[in-house]
Amino acid sequence: MKVLVINAGSSSLKYQLYDMTDETVLAKGLVERIGMDSSILTHKPTGKEEVTEVSEILEHTTAIRKVLEKLTDKEHGVLSSVDEIQAVGHRVVHGGETFKGSALVTPEVKAEIRRLFDLAPLHNPPAIMGINAAEVNMPGVPNVVAFDTAFHQTMEEKVYLYPIPKVLYKKHRIRRYGAHGTSHQYVSRVAAEFLNRPIEELKIITCHIGNGASLTAVKGGVSVDTSMGLTPLEGLMMGTRSGDLDPTVVTFVMNKEELSISEVNSMLNKHSGLLAISGSSSDMRDITDGWEAGKPNETLAFEMYEYRLRKYIGAYAAAMNGVDVIVFTAGVGENSAIVREKTCENLSYLGVELDKELNKVRSGEPRRISTPNSKVEILVIPTNEELMIARDTLQIVQESK
């Protein structure tokens, strides 16, 4: 079965086409600047040259039509016909409490995703646009939705509830939902396979650290705690997001600076984190360059980031009464040897021993970077959320037949 995986944003659309007989990627690409007359489609068929096309793409239906044209193009395509695509998988950020796993798209499922718009106003609306566009361009082809929040629906009430009046949970479902669930689930499974150990026996801390970042405590293969909350703002210090802070900071700043709700929300999500402390960049590569050069602002940003990351690892080791495996993944986790090194240096109380030479090796494959004497396995595992979505899509479509 060939499965097209789509990740729709408000003005962008990422895609990957899989042949699920061997899980190979046939092609992948990105449509940018949707809604403009100078939209950019970048298409990369496996084993062929990357091609770029600039044209007017005003909405997602046209974007997917353009993608399908590229996939079936005689020179740059990988399909003889659109009919070869037998299913479409979609990434959806928020599934609320309704979705504890991926689901076949129905009118009822779409209605529920719309109902959850308030919990993910920047992400769920584009996801619906992507689903509708796929249905228009590929009528009769089943669509499946995979939710970033679904993996975390195994958390217990004592973990996901906030200590605020419970009526707010009953009326508005204010609670911890988490995010990056597809990534956390994927790398925890790969970790168990890599170590050739049953996941049911493992206590794993997965560190998905990129521009957005979250940690998850995975015990026996299920999420028992995660750092992001009602929204992706809670938890770790990130590229432009503040992470944890005293809630009174919000009302205090609004009062002193005469900011509106939208302005303070923008401040915490887009103008905080590494960018705010360094004053120069939200990119960890720039931050580490500045730290190595002895620049004070970048050094402070790096030290705050590493400290908060390490503090959460310690908290989740306590939550699970131990840890067997720590996994680093996503942009920073996979590529920043210095972040991994400095974090692990201060985890010696857990029995962590990092092999500094192994840590410097760059590879696109899962690998161990701890020493043979380390009491905790330290792994670097490239995440692959698209493959996880493709697998769920295949399974759900086959089960629905």
TrEMBL record:
<dbReference type="InterPro" id="IPR023865">
    <property type="entry name" value="Aliphatic_acid_kinase_CS"/>
</dbReference>
<comment type="subunit">
    <text>Homodimer.</text>
</comment>
<feature type="binding site">
    <location>
        <begin position="331"/>
        <end position="335"/>
    </location>
    <ligand>
        <name>ATP</name>
    </ligand>
</feature>
<feature type="site" description="Transition state stabilizer">
    <location>
        <position position="180"/>
    </location>
</feature>
<keyword id="KW-0067">ATP-binding</keyword>
<comment type="function">
    <text>Catalyzes the formation of acetyl phosphate from acetate and ATP. Can also catalyze the reverse reaction.</text>
</comment>
<comment type="pathway">
    <text>Metabolic intermediate biosynthesis; acetyl-CoA biosynthesis; acetyl-CoA from acetate: step 1/2.</text>
</comment>
<comment type="similarity">
    <text>Belongs to the acetokinase family.</text>
</comment>
<dbReference type="Pfam" id="PF00871">
    <property type="entry name" value="Acetate_kinase"/>
</dbReference>
<keyword id="KW-0418">Kinase</keyword>
<keyword id="KW-0963">Cytoplasm</keyword>
<dbReference type="InterPro" id="IPR043129">
    <property type="entry name" value="ATPase_NBD"/>
</dbReference>
<feature type="active site" description="Proton donor/acceptor">
    <location>
        <position position="148"/>
    </location>
</feature>
<feature type="binding site">
    <location>
        <position position="7"/>
    </location>
    <ligand>
        <name>Mg(2+)</name>
    </ligand>
</feature>
<dbReference type="InterPro" id="IPR004372">
    <property type="entry name" value="Ac/propionate_kinase"/>
</dbReference>
<keyword id="KW-0460">Magnesium</keyword>
<feature type="binding site">
    <location>
        <position position="91"/>
    </location>
    <ligand>
        <name>substrate</name>
    </ligand>
</feature>
<protein>
    <recommendedName>
        <fullName>Acetate kinase</fullName>
        <ecNumber>2.7.2.1</ecNumber>
    </recommendedName>
</protein>
<feature type="binding site">
    <location>
        <position position="385"/>
    </location>
    <ligand>
        <name>Mg(2+)</name>
    </ligand>
</feature>
<keyword id="KW-0808">Transferase</keyword>
<dbReference type="GO" id="GO:0016301">
    <property type="term" value="F:kinase activity"/>
</dbReference>
<feature type="binding site">
    <location>
        <begin position="283"/>
        <end position="285"/>
    </location>
    <ligand>
        <name>ATP</name>
    </ligand>
</feature>
<feature type="binding site">
    <location>
        <position position="14"/>
    </location>
    <ligand>
        <name>ATP</name>
    </ligand>
</feature>
<dbReference type="InterPro" id="IPR000890">
    <property type="entry name" value="Aliphatic_acid_kin_short-chain"/>
</dbReference>
<keyword id="KW-0547">Nucleotide-binding</keyword>
<feature type="site" description="Transition state stabilizer">
    <location>
        <position position="241"/>
    </location>
</feature>
<feature type="binding site">
    <location>
        <begin position="208"/>
        <end position="212"/>
    </location>
    <ligand>
        <name>ATP</name>
    </ligand>
</feature>
<keyword id="KW-0479">Metal-binding</keyword>
